[in-house]
C-alpha cells in the first residue's frame, strides 16, 4: 500500500518552491521550564516563500498542476490576513503568473493594523491584485466574474480553493509527513504525538495520511482555530478519504487522530489568552515566533495537554510549526499592552 502511494506522489506534477527539509528542532529551554515530554518543532515556518509557512508544501503540488495545465494566472481566496493568500502571491511572483486574491472580512476588525499591515502589506508588495469583499457569497461571485473575464480575454486561470485544501494540496503534507518520518527515525525519537493547527484541514489531512503511509505510529492531535470540531472534523474526514482514494491507499485509521476546538476561543482570528501566553513563552524560551490566529492557539493547546498530564513524559512530541508570523504585525496592539 505504502509503495503505491509513494509512487503516485512521485508521479504528480510538482514545482519546487521551498527549502527542504525544514529543520526538526528540540525545545530544550522550554522543557527545562515546563518538564513533561520532549517537544520538537517541525519548522515549516522556515519553508521559504516570503516568510514561509505551511502553504509552500501545498502550492508545490497545486501550482505544479497549474503549470502542467498551461495556466498563466491564479485566483484564490482567504481572510484579509490570510497566510495562504500571501504565500500564493509569492509563488505566483516567482513563477511569473498573475495572482488575484479574493479576501473576505471574516474577522470583525477594521483598524489600520489589521487592514494595512502584516499579510495584506506583503500581498501588495508581492504584486497580487486584491479584491476585498464582505463574505463567502460575495467571494464566489467575484471568482466567477474574474474567471469569466479571464476566459473572455484568452487567459487560462487556475482556481485554488481556500487554504489550498483539496486532494492535490493535501499531497504537500503527505510529502511533509514522509520527510518528518525520516527525521524522526534518524534523530531516534520515540514519537507519541503530533500537534497541528487546522482551519481548512488540508495540512492535518496530509499529516494523518503521511503518518500512516510512513508507519509513524503517532497520535495526531488537531487544534481547530477556524470552525468548531464538528465542522473541521468532517472536513478532515472527507479530505483524508478523497486523498486516500487518489493515493490508492486505505483510509487512515480514525483512532490515530482527534480534533479539539478547545483552542478556538471566541472565534477565528480572535486572540485568546492561552494563545497569547503560548506565543510569549516560545518567543522568550526558544526565540521562535508563533502567531495569534493559528500556531499560538495550537501551541497553547499543546501546553494544555502537557499541563493536564495527557502526554507521555518519557516520549517525544512534534509540534508542526505552520508559520503565520506576519499576523503578529496585524495584531500589534495586543502585544503592546
Ligand atoms: C499559519 C497557519 N497555520 C495553520 C493553518 C491551517 O492550515 P489548514 O488550512 O491546512 O488547516 C493555516 C491556514 O491558513 C495557517 O496560515
Keywords:
337 residues, alpha/beta, Rossmann fold, 6-stranded mixed beta sheet, 4-stranded parallel beta sheet, globular, binds pyridoxal-5'-phosphate, D-cysteine desulfhydrase activity, ACCD_DCysDesulf, TrpB-like_PALP, TrpB-like_PALP_sf, pyridoxal phosphate
Notes on the protein architecture:
With 337 residues, the chain is an alpha/beta fold. It folds into two domains: 2-53 and 167-336, Rossmann fold (3-Layer(aba) Sandwich); 55-164, Rossmann fold (3-Layer(aba) Sandwich), CATH 3.40.50. It has 14 helices and ten strands. The protein has a six-stranded mixed β-sheet, with helices on both faces. β7 (191-198), α9 (202-213) and β8 form a beta-alpha-beta unit. The longest helix is centred in the C-terminal third of the chain and has 19 residues, at 229-247. The radius of gyration is 19 Å and the shape is globular. The termini are far apart. The site of pyridoxal-5'-phosphate (PLP) has 20 residues, from α4, β7 and α9. Residues 53-54, 83-84, 163, 165, 197-204, 291, 294-295, 322-324 line the site of pyridoxal-5'-phosphate.
Amino acid at each position: 500500500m505504502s509503495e503505491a502511494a509513494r509512487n503516485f506522489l512521485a508521479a504528480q506534477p510538482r514545482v519546487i518552491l521551498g527549502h527542504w527539509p525544514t529543520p526538526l528542532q528540540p525545545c530544550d529551554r522550554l522543557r527545562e521550564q515546563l518538564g513533561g515530554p520532549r517537544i520538537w518543532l517541525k519548522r515549516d515556518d522556515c519553508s521559504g516563500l516570503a516568510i514561509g509557512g505551511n502553504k509552500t508544501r501545498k502550492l508545490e503540488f497545486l501550482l505544479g498542476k497549474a503549470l502542467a495545465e498551461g495556466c498563466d494566472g491564479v485566483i484564490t481566496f482567504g481572510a484579509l490576513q490570510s497566510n495562504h493568500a500571501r504565500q500564493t502571491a509569492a509563488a505566483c511572483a516567482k513563477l511569473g503568473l498573475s495572482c488575484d486574491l479574493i479576501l473576505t472580512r471574516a474577522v470583525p476588525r477594521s483598524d489600520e493594523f489589521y487592514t494595512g499591515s502584516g499579510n495584506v502589506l506583503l500581498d501588495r508588495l508581492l504584486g497580487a491584485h486584491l479584491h476585498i469583499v464582505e463574505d463567502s457569497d460575495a467571494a464566489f461571485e467575484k471568482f466567477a466574474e474574474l474567471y469569466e473575464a479571464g476566459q473572455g480575454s484568452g487567459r487560462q486561470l487556475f482556481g485554488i480553493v481556500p487554504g489550498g485544501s483539496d486532494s492535490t494540496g493535501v499531497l504537500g503534507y503527505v510529502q511533509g509527513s514522509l520527510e518528518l518520518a525520516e527525521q524522526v527515525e534518524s534523530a531516534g525519537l520515540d514519537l507519541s504525538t503530533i500537534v497541528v493547527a487546522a482551519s481548512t484541514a488540508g495540512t492535518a489531512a496530509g499529516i494523518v495520511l503521511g503518518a500512516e503511509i510512513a508507519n509513524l505510529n503517532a497520535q495526531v492531535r488537531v487544534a481547530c482555530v477556524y470552525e468548531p470540531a464538528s465542522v473541521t472534523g468532517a472536513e478532515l474526514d472527507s479530505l483524508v478519504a478523497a486523498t486516500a482514494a487518489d493515493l490508492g491507499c486505505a483510509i487512515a485509521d480514525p483512532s490515530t487522530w482527534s480534533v479539539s476546538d478547545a483552542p478556538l476561543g471566541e472565534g477565528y482570528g480572535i486572540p485568546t489568552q492561552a494563545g497569547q501566553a503560548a506565543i510569549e513563552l516560545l518567543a522568550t524560551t526558544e526565540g521562535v515566533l508563533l502567531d495569534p490566529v493559528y500556531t499560538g492557539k495550537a501551541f497553547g493547546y499543546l501546553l494544555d495537554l502537557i499541563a493536564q498530564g495527557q502526554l507521555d513524559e518519557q516520549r517525544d512530541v512534534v509540534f508542526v510549526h505552520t508559520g503565520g508570523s506576519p499576523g503578529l504585525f496585524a495584531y500589534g496592539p495586543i502585544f503592546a499592552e
